[in-house]
Amino acid sequence: MTASGVSNPVDVIKVRQQLKTQTPGVKANAFWKVGYQMARTEGIRSLGNGFAASMMREASYSGLRLGTYEFFKDRVYELSKGSLSRDSLTLKVCGATIAASIGSFVANPADLVKVRMQAHYPAGKPYRHTLDCLISVWREGAHKQGVSSPFAGGIRSLYRGVEATTIRGIVLSVSQICSYDHVKHLIKKRGLMEEGLKLHLTASLFAGLFCSITSNPIDVVKVRVMNDKERKFKGVFDCVRSIIVKEGPLAFYKGFGMCWARLGTHTIVSFLVFERVRLLFGISPL
């Protein structure tokens, strides 16, 4: 939550960039232009859009994926009956995949509301606050024609884009948590650094870059599907096809600069705070 609070303005600009459907090669989508346009037309406070939803998302998503990572690592190690070593990359990937799958699924409604709150609306913001947005998303599904059950329709609406959210969560967590854990282990094993702030900062820098490269394409699709109120896309794969046909493959890396700035900052702050909290509670470092 601390990391998300620090990086929220960057996250808003990243979402705005990813929602733009421009002709490939057009340079009007630069992060500084998007940020300046927002501050000029919507006010500087617009960079804080979706803050409450972002806090809700992090409490559930990151709380679960970081909080249960080592638990699932231990369970997979026990199930392997010694065939996997404690330091193996395979064990780390399995632990991160299970933890991220659970966290992503639970947090999808908050993630969807965050995207809606951060998007640009030329005719004016349609939501008064986070709860109003959550209710509006529910009603989109509950009042949809052909829905057999309003309750089931509302749930489906809140879980729109859950496939992309879960895939992104797995890719992000595997590339972020595992790379941090593995890089940190290798640096310590070779005697380059000892446990401490410098080691945590170095490992988190590598993790931030790696997870930005791997997760940006999925993030673009997730944002597009979640903000699709008119239901232009039939689903995640239809969105992927549409982006490739209309905008080209490079569109999957729209907003990469801000994605790296956001995820890099988020990763560094997350792990520095995470390691410090562990220390304060007498828990050994990751």
Automatic annotation (TrEMBL):
<dbReference type="GO" id="GO:0016020">
    <property type="term" value="C:membrane"/>
</dbReference>
<keyword id="KW-0472">Membrane</keyword>
<keyword id="KW-0677">Repeat</keyword>
<keyword id="KW-0813">Transport</keyword>
<dbReference type="InterPro" id="IPR018108">
    <property type="entry name" value="MCP_transmembrane"/>
</dbReference>
<protein>
    <recommendedName>
        <fullName>Mitochondrial carrier</fullName>
    </recommendedName>
</protein>
<comment type="similarity">
    <text>Belongs to the mitochondrial carrier (TC 2.A.29) family.</text>
</comment>
<dbReference type="InterPro" id="IPR050391">
    <property type="entry name" value="Mito_Metabolite_Transporter"/>
</dbReference>
<feature type="repeat" description="Solcar">
    <location>
        <begin position="87"/>
        <end position="186"/>
    </location>
</feature>
<keyword id="KW-1133">Transmembrane helix</keyword>
<feature type="repeat" description="Solcar">
    <location>
        <begin position="1"/>
        <end position="75"/>
    </location>
</feature>
<keyword id="KW-0812">Transmembrane</keyword>
<dbReference type="Pfam" id="PF00153">
    <property type="entry name" value="Mito_carr"/>
</dbReference>
<feature type="repeat" description="Solcar">
    <location>
        <begin position="195"/>
        <end position="280"/>
    </location>
</feature>
<dbReference type="InterPro" id="IPR023395">
    <property type="entry name" value="MCP_dom_sf"/>
</dbReference>
